[in-house]
Structure formats: structure tokens, C-alpha cells
Amino acid sequence: MSNSGMSNSGMSNSGDHTAPDRTAPAGGDAGPVPTDDRLPVTKTYKLYLGGAFPRSESGRVYPVSDYRGAFLANAAQASRKDARDAAAAARVTAAGWADADAYTRGQVLYRIAEMLEGRRDQFVTAVATAEGCQTRRAAALVDATIDRWVWYAGWTDKIATVLGSANPVAGPYFCFSVPEPIGVVAVLAPQSSSLLGLASVLAPVIAAGNTAVVVASQNRPLPAVTLSEVLATSDLPGGVVNILTGRTAELAPWLAAHADVNALDLCGAPPSISAELERTAAGTIKRVLPAPVAEPDWTRQPDIRRLRAFVEIKTVWHPRA
Amino acid sequence: MEWTYSPALESREVARLRPHYPMFVDGKFTEGGGEPLTTINPATGTALADVSTASAANVDTAVRAARRAYERVWSRMPGAERAKYLLRIARLIQERARELAVLESLDTGTPISASRDVHVPAAAAHFFHHGGWADKLGYAGYGPDPRPFGVTGQVVSPDAALLSTAWKIAPALTCGNTVVLKPAESTPLSALVLAEICQQADLPPGVVNVLPGGADIGAALVAHDGLNKVAFTGSTDVGRQVTRTLAGTGRSLTLALGGPAVVVVFDDAPLDQAVDGVLAGALGGPLTGSRLLVQESIAAQLLDMLRTRAAALRIGDPLDKNTDVGAVSSAERLGRIEELAGNAVAEGAQRWVGPSPLPDQGFFCSPTLICDVNQAMRIATEDIPGPVLPVLTFRTPEEAAALANHTPTGLAASVWTDKGSRMLWAAQRIRTGVVWSNTACRFDPTAPFGGYREAGIGREGGRAGLQEYLDV
Amino acid sequence: MTTTFSLPGDLAEAAGDDTSLRRFLHRLPGVDAAGLQARAAVLATRSIKAGAKLQAIDTAIRMVDLTTLEGADTEGRVRSLCGTARRPDPGRPEVPPVATVCVYPDRVGTAVRALAGSGVGVASVATAFPSGRSSLRIKLADTALAVESGADEIDMVIDRGAFLAGRYGQVFEEITAVRSACPDARLKVILETGELATYDNVRRACWLALLAGTDFIKTSTGKISPAATLPVTHLMLQAVRDFHQRTGARCGVKAAGGIRTTKDAIRYLVAVHEIAGPGWLTPRLFRLGASSLLGDLLMQRRTQLDGHYSGADYVAAP
Q1: In the predicted model, what is the mean pLDDT of residues C35-59?
Q2: Measuring CA to CA, which residue among B187, B212, B211, B172 is closest to residue B333?
Q3: Residues of B in contact with A175 (CB under 8 A)
């Protein structure tokens, strides 16, 4: 991972902008004439692995519909090999991301918020379409998502202050404890909240210095793919976040069993298999954040449970006499 | 081969220097009622700009504006929203980094390499870090919902003007206080540009007010009974007066006073890095001055290395990117340095002065070592605001700790040894607010900074720094 | 070329057996890695412009050991490189030649013939370069081949395995043996700092080679990553500076591998200038081992003189 690329994160506002308003009058007499007849170019939704956007190695896709059942797009249907590649990419980046200054990580997360704000309208549309809510409600969800990234951006350089300690041990020793990232975390994103829920589980994982393999909401994956475009242009080193779309129940067991995955967030696990996933994860004594009984209300202010879940505490003793 | 670096001057135009700078009150730049002051470029001794100063009446107006902003807007705003204002300010500092760096170098004499690579990025970092706290104060260990004081009056010294302004304003704002700040009389410009940045960030009017002026305005500000909190940076003597002024008022006070840092070099130190660290400490940064304690068995070798390295330092135009030692921020400070060094020599100390020629104008001082210093000399305990390093020797670790502690202040220490247990022993024994180990002059918004005893009260930075701006 | 001077008492004592070497090397002041790297980073921000830059470029060109060390090196390839070495920028005859051409021992003869009368030296790697994993007999034979073919300089590698295992005496004796095998050549000892793991080790290896009588200490073979770095070069420059202070002898430093741009090269020259001192800014005491660097130096030289940017197609290919 290039350190220089990370330290210089986002000095200026992005040059990014929302899609031009097609109903606005064209400026100047030589401008293009807007027309309702024009056929829009549709987007191909792909995976996000190691900073690149590949199709599934399996060549599979599955249709994604809006809340009324109308076809929206084909999403890549990731295979176990894609999950393996995602874990490998996350591992390669793990050491560099963990070693990056907490301040640098905070700057990168804040940059994600900036880039999201710049594409706010696009996300409002994506969330409204995926979740079938009113534009006003979708806008509130997107705003909350942006603020959630800002909230976790502020945590990167405070986790050690809040969770670390100086330990007044008996004897001539200086003893302190610091939280350290746990490594590669597999995250099963919430199934309902396609963007705010995803950000609420992903941001703490990377804020704490881990790298992530995310399985997006199975039936509402498109906002996650669009988010990956934001991540790819936010000074986030490729491989820190890897996003898979596909069938959660197909991918989750491979991640739960993967020996090079250190922790598992079962938030979006299908209830029918979540206990089995915990049993599978026990094979390598993974840290597991169990699935909630019901999907939480993500609009509520979080606490630091998700930050605590993905750190190890290291205690250091040193003589001082 | 003789190789002379060609001048590599940063452009003065970048600073967007204006002939006149008004004060900043209630979200507007307005003319103050005081006598305008002229701020001097210490590298030339010539005028940079005129700066409007506040009158006592302006102090009153500013405090009222800050009170209104506190009661109507800032104290009612959710932390998450306050946070975003601080983050905006941080980004604007980053965007205008080059301008601020050049301005700071012009006004304070700090080499551009230091203002560009250290001071301005650190100022932005303070806003970023503290911005993050605004909606997390419940995690800082002061209870679930700690409250701000209200209106704070802040007085800043000429050392690292921009950085010390940032590390005063940022924690005050994040905790929900509003601010009336008086920059140093000799270096007011960067605080006024920071005020402009607050305006660009749409910070509600009155949340930050900047009142340039002299000691009288500083005194009027800290004595104002509309304040709930005073934070003062400056000399121990003025700090004493401020403390007396506030005695009995019940108002909270944070003091960041002087006192030289002490550098302790043991015989097993990584010597090449120790030389770098000693010079980094002596040459500036936000600290004024330091004194060197070196173990006798390596004193000759270390001094030899120091002289070689100091002789190679490049002294001159602060705007030259290759300058290591810039100008002393004011003529008054230069006089003080010369007086202290002269006294020590008169009392028997040996002076070594770096051989590089000084510019023929401006307030410059050659890197200087004062050897054979004893504890009775003023130079052994007082601040020397320039590149002058008194050197004392010690024989044992106990003696080093005793010498380090033999001062009424206790701001910072820098301990050089390859042996971890000795370092931690020294850290425990030396009574200073900061102990750097095998490094010197490190500052970070996450790390509390401040001194023991007469070096000040309270800390700036980190979780401990938040407590200075919370009524807890 | 062998420097004739005698070590002062304490250093002569150190250069005795394994035990005395260990005692000396392990008592050298430690290196604080964070501080060393920070200082290297600060010095790397020096801004070298205008006349100082042009002077640096010409100096750097004169310091280049133009290197080809490939299994695929042919006589043609070596001759072509020698042409570049003699006259780096044919369109600008005032451009000085490089210091040496650096090749494998069996290509020395070709280089010597191609460079005859040019003033450009021939350097040869030797001693089972790059790994050094062979017997001393083979290493000396390798050296002899280079010397007999006319090499002016010998770039030997140390046995890093022996060094890391703490067999300092063995490393020392190998260097003195090679030293004796090439009495008239300039000897450069390659430490392969990328394999020495710590800065403390690098400092010890520097002193070991200096005590054994080398003319130059050299960072790397170029076959291992990391090759030359600024912090490591700082350390080596400190070593030759301190060795000079204690013995009066001036030894050189060669930074090899990974230096590709003029900007990089100038950072090394700044380090030489400010750490060892201006006296080291000569090809006799500092070298840059590189293959692609020369092209960039020539391009930047043209940019400086012509006032507009140049392109790779306008200067000689290395």
C-alpha cells in the first residue's frame, strides 16, 4: 500500500457531481437539446475486489428487482472462489491499513463521507428504488449514512484513548494496554437497509483498522455496488473493502469456515443458518458478532459496540527500574 | 566539491498579504477602537501589514457576541453538527495550507519548511481530531453528557502562532464553548486568516471572535466578567498576574506557560539521532528553548557532533525552502537571548557560535552552544527563545534526574538512551508534563501537552485536554 | 589502489579476531530507526534549483557506475553500454563521461577494450555475486578473473549468512583475502543492506568492512528489494565520516539499486553533502550504481538548459 497515496487524502472537494438535471434548459444556443426520447445507458453492476471491479469468476448473474418486482439490473452472483479472492485481497492490504496512522484512516473515512455527499442525489434514487420508500425518507437515510461515516471517521484516533489503558501493576513495571485491529473481518450486511445499514456495519470494521469482505444485501445489492464506486475514489487503498453480491446463504459458510478470516459479523445472516455459521466459525475460534433478533433501527445513534467487537487488546509490560 | 544551493524562495505572493487587517467580531471583520499596530517581518525588520486592534469596549462587544452565539446557537447545536463545522475548518486549512504557511513564515520568522510540513498540517489535524470529539464527549470519561463552560477568553503567545491558536480554538469549540481570542501582538496574522476560514466555513457569527491587540487588551479580556473560562499562553510572570486576576472569581483557568525543555543524553544513546533531536528542540518548534544534560563520558563526543551538525545548519530567509533556522520572532526576544547568553559568558561559561554568516537585516541569531554552564546561572533555568543551547554534564542517572528537576518549571523532557528500563525510570523521576523518549518536540492532537508546576496548569490535546473546556 | 594507512591502536585491536570484532561492533552507538528515517525524510525535502541543480546533474553523471548485470549480457550489449558511458549525450559533447561501467567478470575484457583511453573505469562484480554463496577459493578465482581481464574496481559481496550468524571474523577475513587478491584495484564491499534486517546491523557491517580495508562500502547488489534507501545511505555516510575522523582515511560510499530519477539522485547528493560533507562530493568518494538513472539525468539536464521539458527519445538509451 502506498503511504504517500494515503497521507495526501482529499485536500480539495471532489470534482464529482450529481448527474445533470435532464429537464434543465440547455445553456447557450449550441447546447444539446434535451429529449424524452433518448434511451439511457444502463449500468453493469460488478463485484468490488482488491480495488478492481471484476465480474464473478463464475460468470453468473442474478436479476435484481425493485420493491414492486420490476426488473432493475443483473447483479454479479459471486461464487466461493470470489469469496476466497476477496479474503485474499483483504489479507494483502490488512497489514498496511492496520499500520496506517489512525489520523490517516480518519481522513480516508471522512473523504468517503465527502464523496457520498457529492453523489447524494444518485444515492437517494438508488435507496428509494431498492427499498421502495419515498424520496424524502430515502434522502434522510442517505444523510444519516453520510453522518455515520463522519461519526466513525472521528473514532479512528480515539479508539485507543477510550479502550486503552495504563495499568498500575504492582512492581517496577510500566504496563499499558492498547486495542489493535483483529485482521480480516467478513461482514454479512443487513438485508433490509441497503445503504445506511451497510455503512453502519462496514464503517466500524475499517475504522478500527481491519479490512473487510462484505456480502451485500441479497435482494437490495445495488446501493452497495454504487457505494463501492465511492470507496474506489476515496483514497481508500484497494482491498481494504471488498464487496460481494450474490446469495448470502451460499457465500457465508465459506467465509465462516475460512481460516484466514479473523472475525465474522453475522448481522445479515439468514436466521435459518446463523446458528450453524457460528458453529462453523468456532472451528477457527473466530470472533463473531451474532445476528440480531431483528434488523436494528439503523437511524438510531450507534454506540461503540461494533468498534469493540473487532479489536484485540494487547498488553505490554516493560521494566522501569 | 563546493556546492551552494541556489535560493529556493517560496513566493511571498502566495500569502495574499493585505495592507490592512481588521479585527473579527460577531462574524464580521470590523475596525477596532484601539490604536492600529504594525506587524513586522522579523526576517527584514520591516513592516508587513497594519492590524486594527481592539479597545476595551470592543472586548465587551466581542464577549457579548460570543455569549449570544453560545446561548442561541452553539450550546444548543447537536454535537454531530458542531463536529461538521470543525471538519470544514480543518479542510479549509488544508486547502489554504500553502497560503497559511507562507503567511506564518512571514509573520513569525519560522522557516517555511517547518510551517509547511509541521505547523499548518498540525493545525488542521487539531481541528480534525477535535471535530471527532464533538459528538463523542460522553466517551471521554467525564460523565454521559458533559457540559461546556460557556464563553472562553483565550490569549496566545508568539510561539507557533497558528498552531497554538488551533489547539486553543478547536477543543473549546468541540466542547460547545464560544471563543474570544487575542493573538500575540507581534504575530497576529494567521489568527486573522483563521477567522476568515471560520467565515468561509459558515461558522455562526460570534462563535469565534479574534481581537488583535497588546498586553492591555489581553489583560482586559482575561479580566472580563462575561467570561466563564480563560486559557492563557505566555510567560510565567504574566501567567501569575492572570491567575491573580481570576482568583476568587470561580472562573476556570488553563495556563500554558514557558520553561525550557530539558534534554537528557545518556552514554548509551543513539548519538546521531540524539544530535538531531537536540537541535530540533533547540531550534524551535512550539517550544522556546531547551537545556542539554549530557553524561560526562560522552560529552566531548556529543558536543563535537553537535558543533559539526550545527555548523552545517542553514540560517537565513524563512521563505527559502532550504532554511533550517529562521528569524527570532521579534527584536525584543533577540535582545533577551543576547542578554541571557552574555550573562552566562560573563559568569564563566564558554560560548560556541555557528560559523555561518547571518543576514545583515532582520532578527537573526546563530546556533549557539553555551558550555560549562552551572545550575546557578540564569541561563540554566530560564527560557531562551532562540537557537541557544546551554549544556550541563552529569555523571549518574540520579544526578541527571536531580538536575532536570532543579527548576521551578517542568514543561517537557527528552530522554535519550537505548535502554528501555532507564528511559522509563527517567520518565518516572523527571517532573515534566511530557517526556519524549529518543525523540523530541513531537506534538499530536491526541497527546496531552502541558507542564508541571510553574510551566502551567492543565493540558492541551487528547482526552485530558477536553477537560479544560468542560464544566466537569 | 590499496589505501596504505595503519589503524590507530583501538581500531587495530578491534580488527583482530572474532571476539574483539564482536566487542567493538556491538559497542557502536545504537541507531534509532524512527529518528533516522525522520531525518532522511526531512533532508529529502531540500529544494535544489537552477544552477545548483545543473551542477548536481553533472556531478551525478560523473558518479554513475553504469551497470548491466544480466545473464543475458552479450558482448554487443556491453559495447553499446560503453559507448553511452564514454559519451552519454552525443548531441551535447560537453556532458562528462560516467565513472565506470559495471559488469560481470567474464565481460570485463570486452568493456576494457571498448573503454580504452576514455578515462571511464571498468568495475566488475565478483565473489559469487550476488548471493556470495560459494567457497572462498571460488570467490578469489572470480576476483582473479576480473583483475586479470583488466578491471579497475572490484565490487565484492559479503557473506550475509555468516554476518547474520555472528561470524564476524569470517566476513572480515574474506574481505581481507579479496583485498589482497586485487591490490591495485579499488575495492567496494557490498553489504546487501536489504538482507541485514536492522540499522544496527548495517552500522556494524559498515565498520567491519572499513576495518578490513575496503575503499568503498556499497549498499546493495540491486538484486534484492529494498536496494539503496536514503536512511541506509545516511548511516553509511555517517560511518565513513566517523571512520575518517578516527583514522584520517577517506572511504567512499556507493548507493546502488532503485535510484532511477534525477530527483532521487539529488536527494542522495544532498545526503552526501550534509552528512559526510562537501569533501565527499567527488566520484572518488561517492557513486551511484544504476542503469536507467543516466537517461533521466540527461533528460533533466536538457530541460534545465533548453528551458522546456525533454523526452526519453532525445537522449541515449542506456
Answers
A1: 96
A2: B187
A3: none
- Give residue B406's identity as a one-letter amino acid code: H
Following CA atoms A299, A301, A303, A305 in sequence, which dihedral angle do they give, to the nearest 10 degrees?
10
Query: Which among B83, B94, B446 has the least Cβ separation from residue A150?
Result: B83
Which pLDDT does position A11 carry in this prediction? 37
Residue type at B129 in one-letter notation: H
Nearest Cβ partner of B425 from A107, A161, A320? Answer: A320
Q: What is the ipTM for the molecules in this complex?
A: 0.94
Asked about C254 being catalytic, the answer comes back as yes
pLDDT of C315: 81
CA of B71 vs chain A CAs: smallest distance (Å): 25
Interchain pair B1, C281: CB under 8 A: yes
The residue among B268, B368, B299, B284 whose CA lies nearest residue B113 is B284
Residue C100, helix vs strand vs coil: strand
Q: pLDDT, tens digit, for every residue of C171-203? A: 999 999 999 999 999 999 999 999 999 999 999
For residue C263, indicate whether it is catalytic.
no
Residue B448: pLDDT over 60: yes
Q: Mutual orientation of helices C33-43 and B271-282 as an angle, nearest 10°?
A: 60
For a pLDDT cut of 70, what percent of chain C falls above it? 97
Chains linked to A by 3 or more Cβ pairs within 8 Å: B
Residue with cell 594507512: C5
| A 169-208 residues with CB < 8 A to B | 174
Give pLDDT tens digits for A223-279: 999 999 999 999 999 999 999 999 999 999 999 999 999 999 999 999 999 999 999
Shortest CA gap B129–chain A (Å): 7
Grid coordinates of B358? 547571518
Residues from chain B that touch C35, judged by Cβ atoms under 8 A, are: 270, 272-273, 276-277, 438-439
- Edge-to-edge order in the sheet of strand B388-394: B350-353, B368-371, B388-394, B290-295, B261-265, B412-416, B434-437
> For residue C318, what pLDDT band results from cuts at 50, 70 and 90?
low
Helix (H) / strand (E) element for C216: namely: strand C216-218
Whether residue C215 lies in the annotated active site: no
Quick one: which of B223, B221, B194 has its CA closest to B208? B194
Chain B contact set for C50 (CB, 8 A): 6
Q: Are strands A173-181 and C100-103 parallel, antiparallel or unpaired?
A: unpaired
Residues of A in contact with B424 (CB under 8 A): 174, 318-320
CA dihedral angle for residue B10, residue B16, residue B22, residue B24, rounded to 10 degrees:
-90
Weakest mean pLDDT among B91-105, B367-381, C128-142:
B367-381
Determine the Cα–Cα distance for residues A48 and A90; give it in Å rounded to an integer: 11
- Residue of C29, C32, C278 with shortest CB distance to B3: C278
* Cell matching residue B35: 490604536
Q: Which chains, if any, share at least 3 CB pairs under 8 A with chain B?
A: A, C
CB–CB contact A106 B424 (8 Å): no
Residues 6+ apart with CB under 8 A from A153: A106, A107, A109, A110, A112, A113, A207, B132
Q: List all chains that touch chain C, counting a touch as 3 or more CB pairs closer than 8 Å.
A: B
Cross-chain residue pair A320–B91, CB shorter than 8 Å: no
